[in-house]
Amino acid sequence: MLLPGxxxxxxxxxxxxxxxxxxxxxxxxxxxxxFIIVTHGDIGESLLAVAEYxxxxxxxxxxxxxxxxMGELQHVIDSNSQFPFAERQQLIREExxxxxxxxxxxxxxxxxxxxxxxxxxxxxxEFFTSPGGVIIAGVNLPMLLKAAEIRQGSPAEVxxxxxxxxxxxxxxxxxxxxxx
Length: 180
Description:
Elements: E1 6-7, E2 14-15, H1 26-30, E3 34-40, H2 43-55, E4 62-67, H3 84-103, E5 109-113, H4 119-125, E6 133-137, H5 141-149, H6 155-169
Parallel strand pairs: 3-4, 3-5, 5-6
Antiparallel strand pairs: 1-2
Helix pairs in contact: 2-5, 3-4, 5-6
């Protein structure tokens, strides 16, 4: 079972406290990391657009993949299909593969998903079975902004930093009581 504060990796789990798996070689970490945002609807595309706006530059090592809703696929999946969800997953696989080919620089890939156990998370797990890939659920804007500034580190180390940063960015403040 995956506990809060951990990022999933098929070969190992990395903790936000810095305990990580075997790091990649120096040659691998010199190559740039790539990030694929896999979310329901347009969330990932919107997060990426806002991050690029705030930073004032294009994030070439990022790609967003939309997990389409079934109703959006009426023109793609035959309404008489016996396996419409399997066909949807295949479409998502193809989009993740395209995104990977677009952004992979050889330094590893971190997939940022919106929902642990969701379709995007589950499909992304199929792609990353080596130390070169990590999947994080719970993508948010602070995570993207931090990811855009990271220049080195293994995917496991970077993922741990991103989870930690995101956790620190979530706060709950209560307004002062009304006096009357």
